[in-house]
Amino acid sequence: MLRLQLSACVLVLFSSGHVLSQETSGSERVPDFGRDLLPILTNKCLQCHGGVHRKNELDLRTHASLLKGGKTGPAVKPGDVKASLIWEKVSTDKMPKTDLKLTAEERAILQGWIAAGARPPASADTPPHHEQSVPRKPAEVAAAIDRGIEEQLKRAMIPPSPIAADSEFLRRVYLDIIGRIPRLDEARQFLESKEPDKRSRLIDDLLSRPDYGRHFAEIWINIFNVFRVNDKREPNAAGFRDWMGNKLNDGVGWGEIVHEMLAVNVPSFKEKGNNKVIPVEAQYFVYTAQNMGQLDPVTTTSVTAQVFMGIGLHCAECHDHPFQDFEQTDYWGMAAFFGGLGGNGVPNTTGLSDEPIVIKSGKPPTMVTLNIYSEEARHRNTRVQARFPGGPPPTLDPLKDRRRAAFADWLLAPENPYFARTYVNRIWGQFFGHGFVADFADFNKTSPPTHPGILRLLASEAIASKFDQRHLIRCICNSQTYQRTGKPLPGNKNDGKLFSHMTGKVLSPEALYDSLCTVLEVPEIPVPKPETGKGKKAPPTQPDPREQFAKFFRGMSAVQDPTEFVTGVPQSLRVLNQPVFNKGGALVERLMKLDARPEAMIENLFIAAYARLPLAEERADFVAFARSHPEPREMYNRLLWALVNSSEFSLNH
Predict the structure, then answer these.
(1) What is the pLDDT of residue 378?
(2) Spatial distance between the Cα atoms of 99 and 341, rounded to a whole number of angstroms
(3) Number of neighbouring beta carbons within 10 Å of residue 398
């Protein structure tokens, strides 16, 4: 997969190959406004009738605005195709006035949608059922997940793959929950266990380990890195990871962690030399700083909307959103909550205060506001009142209330449609390789969730559990859907959306490093020594091997899609030529002392690397090679080198 990371406002064209949505009755195929019709309007019509240009006051971005119409009245008469003005214009090719005329297939979708009553879209904006006061048992939620997945597969006539073997599940759940493969002894213990509930017990055991918190803290930090534009101020990634990881391990809910990140109150930064030191709990704002490293309301607004709300609000920075129903005031109204961060708004370079405004002289303000200050923005220098996206301005007293705390309170409120769904979609995507909504950062009506019922179910559980991440993971990992094999069947090999089988995921750089250390039984993997010589100085401190490995393997940019493979030849050569890999680490030496017979050695090497026994043909080939080689230690080193350099080792199936 190749993802193009776009910044600012870019015209997005959608494919004309549309798939009609299926009504819940299963009796007729009726077009859905969001999934089927809106991509056509976006591609063919919104250049003239969207958020930037609205000829004849006609806005086709939303269902409501389409029914409202423009100067000449409603564009659609539900149920009456011939009386609908948009059909009259499109069917005669009067519109669009460009060469991008609607195809016969696209006209059929529009005609079918109007004839069926011009219904509103199946939307993910519906808040979850937050009246649920306590979370349900994970097994109960897991069963509900499975029912929802199986119903979709049945309607699509796609068979589900069988449950994964113990070895496949074992390696997968270790990598997904604690970010490394199991040690040889851990793998043997699980594979040899006859306990009927050993899988659920393993899930609980992994969630109780310190590595769980660190692993998920790194997942979230890597998500923040995706949106980072600052190259002048290096975040304190290790400190931020430890702070967040400790909270996750202590059972602090994700909502509480996010609230603390957004509403952190540090009136004065500490001095270190000539630099201001931002504490670890405030590091989120370093990741959302502008490109010169200055804390900034604009980039923070864009990143916060994408990461925690799943909306691409950044296209409304300079004008109304071209394709979604967000106005420019939604963007700058949200930015007003972050107005004290710096930038050209309200400068603050000495601290990160979220205290109410103190007025020493002059007329006190009655509202929290921010001037539109982007150079290319329409209505530049217009003062905008703080408001939540898509809603009215809140009652906020700048002399009494903390602005960022007020925003965080709204964000985490049970009735908020954004936070819980986005959180659930991201966590689900980490385990399955893709979410219910394909773009983690942009829930929009052209891409409704594949399983809206399950999304709402898990969002309700998240709210009821106060965003207890362990609870959500237990619900997911105890499901048969999660425990299915990654080996597709002939009838589901082309399924990439309905979760008929597990999707293979690329190991993150951190997980790859930790897994290599685990299989080799070494504390660390040395990094290449920096070049020294004429004109080159040795670094003052030795770099952390894990951090340097992760930085090298991450490549040019961070990636938020677990299925994307971005490493290349340099990274492959690093593993191929690393001396510790060629020497078998400590594992080969230890195993040879225990049982040096080829059959035993090869079985142990496979379990150590893959958490499985070798297949019959693998066993036969490797044993034959072992018996023909004059130097056993060198030969086993080579075998282990081959195992760790395989795609099976670098992928999580």
Answers:
(1) 84
(2) 46
(3) 18
Encode burial over 536-566: b for 16+ CB neighbours within 10 A, e otherwise: eeeeeeeeeebebbbeebbeeebbbbbbeeb
Regarding pTM above 0.70, the answer is yes
Q: Which residue has the tokens 């003062």?
A: 383
Partners of residue 651 on adjacent β-strands: 506
Final residue in a domain of this structure, among 80, 115, 150:
115
Q: What confidence tens digit (pLDDT) does each residue in 455-488 have?
A: 999 999 999 999 999 999 999 999 999 999 999 9
Domain edge (last residue) among 387, 412, 437: 412
Asked if residues 630 and 638 have their Cβ atoms less than 8 Å apart, the reply is no
Q: What is the mean predicted confidence (pLDDT) over 83-104?
A: 74
Q: What number of residues does the chain have?
A: 653
Range of the domain at 553: 505-528+547-652
Q: Given 3-state DSSP classes, what are the helix, strand and coil percentages for the chain, each rounded to the nearest 5?
A: 45, 5, 50
Residue where the block lists tokens 């290449």:
528
> Are 154 and 254 members of one domain?
no
Same domain, 560 and 617: yes
pLDDT above 70 for 48:
yes
Same domain flag for 164 and 236? no
d(CA 16, CA 26): 24
Alpha helices in 498-544 (DSSP H): 509-520
- Say yes or no: 371 and 520 in one domain: no
Distance separating alpha carbons of residues 511 and 216, to the nearest angstrom: 11
Task: Look at the chain and report how many structural domains it folds into.
Answer: 4
Smallest CA-to-CA distance from 298 within 227, 248, 352, 238 is with: 227
The pLDDT-based confidence of 425 (bands split at 50, 70, 90) is very high
Please check whether residue 459 lies inside any domain of the structure: yes
With 0-12 / 13-18 / 19 or more C-beta atoms within 10 angstroms meaning exposed / middle / buried, residue 255 is: buried
Return the minimum-mean-pLDDT range out of 211-220, 261-270, 538-547: 538-547
Give the count of beta carbons closer than 10 Å to the beta carbon of residue 281.
18
Nearest-10 crossing angle of helices 297-309, 328-335 = 110
